[in-house]
Amino acid sequence: MAFRTARNLAYFSNYIRNYSTNGPLVNVTVNEKSGFATATLQRPSVNSLNLELLTEISHTLQQLEKNKCRGLILTSASNKVFSAGLDLFELHKPNADKIKQMWSTLQEVWIKLYGSSYPTVAVVNGHAPAGGCMLALSCEYRVMLNNFIIGLNEAQIGFSAPMWLIDGMRNTIGSRQAEFALTAGTLFKTEEALKIGLVDEVAQSKEEAIEKAEKFLNKFAKIPPHARSMTKAALRGANIQALVRNKDEEVRSYVDFVTDSQFQDSLGEFIELNLKQKLSK
Ligand SMILES: CCCCCCCC/C=C\C/C=C/C(=O)SCCNC(=O)CCNC(=O)[C@H](O)C(C)(C)COP(=O)(O)OP(=O)(O)OC[C@H]1O[C@@H](n2cnc3c(N)ncnc32)[C@H](O)[C@@H]1OP(=O)(O)O
Questions:
Q1: Would you say the CB of residue 151 lies under 6 angstroms from ligand 1?
Q2: A single GO BP annotation from the record (predicted)?
C-alpha cells in the first residue's frame, strides 16, 4: 500500500510536485506527515469551470486515485470564491464540440470525486454557487467559512440541475429540503447551509477550516481503507452507475439544450443582470 514507507511517501510527494508544476489551474500539495493531499483551485478570478479547469481537476483526481491518496482537501486559492460554477461566458454562443467535451468532463469529475475510494473534504473558503456547490457536494464533508453563499441556483438561470446532481443534493440534505432548495434555486448563506445540513461545520478562518478537515480525515486512520471504500461505493454506487449508463445521452441533451436560442437568450439576460463583466455585443 502507498505511504507505508517513507520512500513511498517521498516518491508520491515528488510525483505530485512534478505533476503540480504541469497543472497551473490546480495546485496539489501533500502533507508528508499525514499523507493528505490538498488540491487548490486557482483559475483567476473565480475558479469558473471551463474545459481547461475541469480537465485539470479530472486528471488530478485520477492521479490521486492511482497513487492511493489517504485523503483529499479541496479548496480555493481565492479568499472570496470557492468556485463560481460553470464558466457562463463559455456557455454563451458556444462551439458545440467544446460544449460537448465540457459537459462530458464535468460528468467525469463528478464520477471521480463522488466515487473516490479515499475520503474527501471541501474547505469552502468562498462563494459556491451551482457547479461550485457541485464540487463541494461531491466531497464527503464540507467545512465552510462565514459570510458566503452556497447552493444550486440552476432554476434561477433557466434550467434544471442534472439528475446526478439532484441525487447528490438529496443524499446530503434529504428529499424535502432538496425539493424546496432546487425548485427555487436557493443560494444559502453559510449559517443557513449549516442548519439544513448542506455544510457540516463552519470555520472562522481558512486555517481553522483546514484543521477541521484534517480532523475529519483522521477519523478514518484506524478503519481498513478497503472496508471504508467498499462501504462508500455501496452507498454512492447506484447514483454513479445511473450517470454512467446515461452519460452519452445526457451529453447530447445538454448540447441541444445549451445551443437552443431560448436558453441562449435567458443566459444572456442572466449575465447582463448578474455579472460585472458584460457580453460583447
Ligand atoms: C440533460 C440536459 C441538462 C441541461 C441543463 C444544464 C444544466 C447545468 C447544470 C448544472 C451544473 C452547473 C451549472 C453552473 O455552474 S451554471 C453557473 C452558475 N454560476 C453563477 O450563477 C454564479 C454567478 N456569479 C456570481 O454570483 C458572483 O460572481 C459570485 C457570487 C460567484 C462572486 O461575486 P463577487 O465576489 O462579487 O465577484 P463578481 O461578481 O464581481 O465576479 C468577479 C468576476 O468573475 C466573473 N464571473 C463570476 N461568475 C462567473 C461565471 N460563472 N462564469 C464566468 N465568469 C464569472 C465576473 O463576471 C467578474 O468578472 P470581471 O468583472 O472580469 O472580474
A1: no
A2: fatty acid beta-oxidation
Instruction: Give the ipTM.
Output: 0.95
Q: Residue-wise over 180-205: b if at least 16 C-beta within 10 A, else e?
A: ebbeebbbbebeebbebebbbbbbee
The pLDDT tens digits of the residues spanning 158-175 come to 889 999 999 999 999 999
Element (H, E) at 191: helix 190-196
What are the catalytic residues?
A: 86, 131, 153-154
Calpha distance 174→176 (Å, rounded)? 6
Distance, CA of 272 to CA of 42 (rounded, Å): 25
Cα of 21 from ligand 1 centre, angstroms: 27
CA distance 216 to 223: 13
The angle that helices 163-173 and 131-138 make with each other, rounded to 10 degrees, is 60
Ligand 1 neighbourhood includes 130 CB (under 6 angstroms): yes
Q: Measure the CA–CA gap between 25 and 55, rounded to whole angstroms.
A: 10
33 DSSP β-pair partners: none
pTM of the model: 0.92
**Structure-derived torsion over alpha carbons of residues 45, 194, 209, 125, reported in degrees to the nearest 10:** 0
Nearest CA among 267, 280, 3 for reference residue 154: 267
